[in-house]
Design brief:
- The structure holds two protein chains of two kinds.
- Chain A is α+β, with helices and mostly antiparallel strands.
- Chain A has one domain: Molybdopterin biosynthesis MoaE subunit (Aldehyde Oxidoreductase, domain 3), CATH 3.90.1170.
- Chain A is 28% helix and 41% strand.
- Chain A starts with a strand and ends with a strand.
- Chain B has one domain: Ubiquitin-like (UB roll).
- Chain B contains two helices and five strands, in the order βαβαβββ.
- Chain B has a five-stranded mixed β-sheet with strand order 2-1-5-3-4.
- Classes of the chains: A alpha+beta, B alpha+beta.
Chain lengths: 152, 80
């Protein structure tokens, strides 16, 4: 069963992986995206994810279907957090199963790469110095590769 | 002129100061509407970095707009 969903609550990777259990599968590859404490040299305190939920879930389902079409998969699932996340929290989880590892590795990579590029989800970083920035929304005159806002 | 339901997310929501509004416009396409709103609200992102979705599906910048459409402007995404 392919599923993509957004979650306002913490992600439980062990529970998600159990949903992929399949005796035909010889490989399970998972990816976890974690909230790290630095971005482009700036110390990060926390971050917020905001999603256009209806379109993000539709696009996420399309990405999983594309992975199914390109690779010999048995199962695929992905969850992306929304809301305010602390350092170390799990921001995104992708899991796939296949008979063999090659398809599982390739499909997992495909799903996370496409998810980052296509899902209408936005990330606002909160820095230790109190400033915030929407990532990838920089315009000329901003600093740090982000759409910068002064400290609140 | 069509009346549209416009929704904003992320940097556009903050720069607009609200997440949605109804408005009546002479703009016939998402690109034209974005330029109108950018001039009115001082959005920092240029139109070529913003995508549009109409009625919850991605559309081209030159797609037609119809009365009652729900339009969302999508700043550069950053999931993962």
């Amino acid at each position: 069963m392919d599923t993509f969903r957004l979650s306002p609550q913490g992600i439980d990777p062990a529970a998600l992986q159990r949903t992929l259990a399949d005796l035909r599968a010889g490989a399970c590859v998972t990816f976890e995206g974690w909230v790290r404490n630095r971005n482009e040299g700036q110390p990060v305190q926390s971050l917020e994810y905001e999603a256009y939920a209806v379109l993000a879930e539709a696009e996420g389902a399309r990405i999983l279907a594309e992975a199914r079409a390109r690779f010999a998969l048995l199962g695929a699932a992905a969850v992306h957090r929304v809301g305010h996340l602390a350092l170390g929290e799990l921001a995104v989880w992708v899991g796939v199963t296949a008979e063999h590892r090659g398809d599982a590795f390739d499909a997992c990579r495909y799903i996370i790469d496409e998810a980052k590029a296509r899902l209408p989800i936005w990330k606002k970083e909160h820095y230790v110095d109190g400033a915030t920035a929407w990532i990838n929304c920089a315009t000329r005159g901003d600093h740090g590769g982000a759409g910068a806002m002064p400290p609140a | 002129m069509p009346t549209l339901d416009v929704h904003y997310f992320a940097i556009l929501r903050e720069q607009r100061g609200q997440s949605q509004e109804k408005l009546t416009t002479a703009a016939a396409t998402p690109a034209a509407l974005y330029e109108e709103l950018r001039a009115r609200h001082g959005f920092t992102l240029p139109g070529n970095r913003v995508r549009a979705a109409v009625n919850d599906a991605f559309v081209e910048a030159a797609a037609p707009l119809r009365d009652g459409d729900r339009i969302v402007f999508i700043p550069p995404v950053a999931g993962g």
